[in-house]
Write a structure and sequence with these properties.
Number of strands: 6
Number of helices: 3
Order of helices and strands: EEHEHHEEE
Radius of gyration: 13 Å
CATH class: Mainly Beta
Shape: globular
Helix content: 10-25%
CATH superfamily: Electron Transport, Fmn-binding Protein, Chain A
Strand order of the largest sheet: 1-2
Strand content: 15-25%
Length: 103
């Protein structure tokens, strides 16, 4: 199973509503992609201006085993539909079950 990590992806999109399709891109095969591959799911937390400074801290080069949420001072809550936790302070969240990864 993957580790909890907080990845600051600015580029993601929702392409459909039935079924909902969420996509994001990564420059290289980073921790988030490995976690999605290993667990089959992820959570999209929408950022607010009030959370921007804390979320930007997650851009730091940390080891894959380091707690990025703890590093940023953010907390988690259990997600409703997936095992991956959500950011407690975030106002909007989507739990996503991965269907495919493309290199």
């Amino acid at each position: 199973m993957g580790h909890i990590n907080l990845a600051p992806y600015s580029f993601f999109n929702v392409f459909n509503y039935k079924p909902p399709i969420v996509a994001f891109s990564s420059v290289g095969w980073k921790d988030t992609i490995c976690n999605v591959r290993d667990s089959g799911e992820f959570v999209v937390n929408l950022a607010t201006r009030a959370l921007a400074e804390q979320l930007n801290l997650s851009c730091a080069e940390l080891a894959s085993t380091e707690d990025e949420l703890g590093f940023t001072g953010l907390d988690t809550l259990a997600s409703q539909y997936v095992a991956a936790p959500r950011v407690r302070q975030g106002p909007r969240v989507s739990g996503v079950q991965a269907d495919a990864l493309a290199a």
